[in-house]
Amino acid sequence: MGLRSATAADILSIVGMVEALRDAVGGPVPVDRAWTARTLASLIASPDGAVWVSAGGFLAASIQRSVISPVPMAVEHGWWAADGSGLRLLRAYEAWAREKGAAFVTLSTGVDGPDLARLGYRRAEQAWVRSI
Question: Is 120 exposed, middle or buried (0-12, 13-18, 19+ CB in 10 A)?
Fold first, then answer.
């Protein structure tokens, strides 16, 4: 199966991949399957959102503006590939971001995730999480 834009029929499968992603990165927030499904449906339907899927991967994103600038940037909301499609998903995301007029693309990886510097990325921020 090649890479394609996700449809509503893909949502339950992607929710399962979100759970695998959370487990793989040791994410502290439990996956709420209903919330995740609604969020994916919203991204699929939105002109400022996109979700791509492969046989064993997905990438979900949207175009947003930050609190410090109105410049549009693409924000990745989830990126997982257990089938070797990770780079293809990333390239689809980058192409879509350019088409949407984004000035930047953002990605997150797990603490032990790949170093994306070889692809032209640089670490700009680091997230810290604590339960309260």
Answer: exposed
Residue 119 neighbours by CB distance under 10 Å: 12
For the cut 70, the answer to whether the pLDDT of residue 58 exceeds it is: yes
Is the pTM of the predicted complex or chain greater than 0.90?
Answer: yes
Q: Is the dihedral of CA 5, 65, 105, 16 positive or negative?
A: negative
Amino acid residing at 26: G
Over residues 68-93, the pLDDT tens digits come to: 999 999 999 999 999 999 999 999 99
DSSP 55-82: SSEEEEEEEEEETTEEEEEEEEEEEEES
* Residues 60-97 as b or e (16 or more Cβ within 10 Å = b): bbbbeeeeeeeebbbbbbbbbbeeebbebbbebbbebb
